[in-house]
Design goal:
2 domains; Branched-chain amino acid transporter AzlC; about 240 residues; membrane; transmembrane helix; mainly alpha; globular; cell membrane
């Protein structure tokens, strides 16, 4: 089989798995682009940030970081904490990505929750090249997000409705994720730890400085109680999506 046919077959095999992600990524990307515009940035910002950062939740956070005093250390720590889960994703995918050649570099860069979930758990159809299949899963999801953010950035100046409160979209996104995880679990130890530590840090450090201490505290508590939580709250691969 020629290389062109191998690539085409992998693309056609990968595309159906990304259709549900297409709807979510494009919608959230458009909202992100409009949000950036309401914060005073032109369409170039969401397009470039989506293409380079490619971390949805962190991109929303980065919008606020661009509006406050320059603090690279705080930005670095916050970015590492928000995306710390990717360290574990990467370790678990070492064997999967082995032997994919130059595609491995893009697979590493473009690995998001959704791409990880598919590439980690899906059974690749017979006769489809593994490397190209994972590459197109990652590439398509990447393009969905970048296109959505670009469209939102371009549409931002044309939006005529009142956009007051649009910045609440990031808070709403995390609330939805939290509620989704809450409903999936029978026991809520991890969630209660997160709520408790966050509330404590909010009281101690105040609303302007509580985020990083809270995330460090949550990480510490979850690490210390890891064995207990794994025993009490067994998870499956689908919960990682």
């Amino acid at each position: 089989m020629s290389q062109q046919k191998i690539i085409k077959k992998a693309l056609f095999a990968a595309f159906p798995y990304t259709i549900p992600i297409f709807a979510g990524f494009v919608f959230l990307g458009v909202v992100y682009g409009i949000y950036m515009n309401t914060a005073g940035f032109n369409a170039l910002y969401p397009m470039v940030m989506a293409a380079i950062i490619f971390a949805g939740s962190m991109e929303f956070v980065a919008t606020n970081l661009l509006l406050v005093a320059f603090d690279p250390l705080r930005a670095l720590v916050l970015t590492l904490l928000v995306n710390a889960r990717h360290l574990f994703y990467g370790i678990s995918m070492l064997d999967k990505y082995n032997g994919t050649g130059w595609k491995k570099w893009f697979l590493i860069f473009g690995m998001c929750d959704e791409s990880f979930s598919i590439n980690c758990s899906v059974i690749i159809p017979p006769g489809v090249d593994k490397g190209w299949f994972m590459f197109f899963i990652t590439l398509l999801n990447y393009l969905y997000w970048v296109c959505g953010a670009t469209i939102g950035g371009l549409l931002g100046p044309l939006v005529q409705f009142n956009t007051d409160g649009l910045d609440f979209v990031m808070t709403a996104l995390f609330v939805v994720i939290f509620l989704d995880q809450w409903l999936k679990k029978e026991k809520h130890y991890s969630s209660l730890i997160g709520l408790g530590v966050t509330a404590l840090c909010l009281i101690v450090f105040g609303p302007e400085n509580f985020i990083i201490p809270a995330m460090l505290g949550i990480l510490f508590c979850l690490s210390m109680l890891r064995k207990f939580l794994e025993k009490e709250e067994p998870t499956d691969d689908h919960d990682l999506a």
